[in-house]
Specification:
This protein has about 240 residues and is of the alpha/beta class. Helix content is about 45%, strand content about 15%. The protein starts with a helix and ends with a helix. The protein binds guanosine-5'-diphosphate and magnesium ion (MG).
């Protein structure tokens, strides 16, 4: 078996052991996990320094599957591609559907397929940026794998993080996911064009986001009707 394949399998085993750890080795597993996070954080810091030194701004977008991350990015890129040269890194377990959608709006896209991993980490981003001529870009967006849990463990080295939920997920979605909102600069509540039909309590969602993180900016958007996308861009200081 090739060395690379062996390493891949080892990595999968390590990841799964976190969930399956027996009680007698649980402390060791947890300590190891903390070390992995520390290692990830220091690489994320290195990425951020490198991007800042090159004058490149960066934002990552996390959120559940279907919340509208790609749709929002399509709108944002469409508006900002006149002003910036944009690279979008898309994380997905198997396809490049999102990258293809965004590329139509005048940005270079790179798809990372994570296989069985439920979030991008700093190593994924580092692999991409070290193989790119960064002189070609002014702005980098990262769309994370659709998930509201795993991405909270891994910083990616971007300047700002947006967490996207939509009103179709119900008014409890923010309350149930404190970690991501604690780690985010902006909370987007998307699909407000559907509010009359669904009657979701958006005020509760806004209050929950602020309760977890008093500094978070909360924006309600519709990627479909282009509502408040300019406001989102303004909050991102782009
Ligand atoms: N009505 C409505 N639909 C939206 C909105 N944003 C995204 N969608 C739809 O929701 C589905 C999932 O969107 P997508 O951007 O792929 O979500 P992602 O998985 O978070 O990237 C697609 O069918 C979109 O057209 C919105 O603001 N309003
Ligand atoms: Mg997407």
């Amino acid at each position: 078996m090739p060395e690379k394949r062996k390493q891949e399998i080892q990595r999968i085993k390590e990841l799964e052991s976190i969930n399956l750890a027996r009680e007698d080795i649980r402390d060791l597993v947890i300590e190891t996990k903390k070390e992995v996070e520390k290692d990830n954080d220091s690489l994320a810091q290195q990425i951020n320094n490198e991007l800042n030194n090159m004058g490149i701004k960066s934002v990552d977008i996390v959120g559940a599957i279907g919340a509208g991350k790609t749709a929002l990015l399509e709108r944002i890129v469409e508006k900002l591609s006149k002003k910036y040269r944009i690279l979008v890194i898309c994380g997905d377990i198997t396809t490049r559907v999102d990258a293809d959608r965004i590329e139509k709006h005048n940005a270079k896209t790179i798809q990372i397929n994570t296989g069985r991993e439920c979030a991008l980490n700093a190593y994924h981003i580092y692999q991409v940026i070290k193989n790119q001529d960064l002189n070609k870009y002014d702005l980098i967006f990262v769309e994370n794998v659709g998930n509201l849990i795993c991405p909270s463990e891994f910083k990616l080295g971007t300047d700002k993080r947006i967490t996207v939920v939509s009103i179709t997920e119900g008014e409890w979605v923010i309350e149930k996911h404190p970690m991501l909102f604690k780690m985010s600069d902006v909370a987007v509540i998307n699909k407000i064009d559907l509010i009359e039909r669904l009657g979701t309590n958006i005020e509760k969602m806004k209050k929950d986001a602020k309760k977890f993180n008093s500094n978070i900016k909360v924006i309600t958007t519709s990627a479909k009707t282009d509502t408040n996308i300019d406001q989102l861009i303004e909050v991102l200081e782009l």
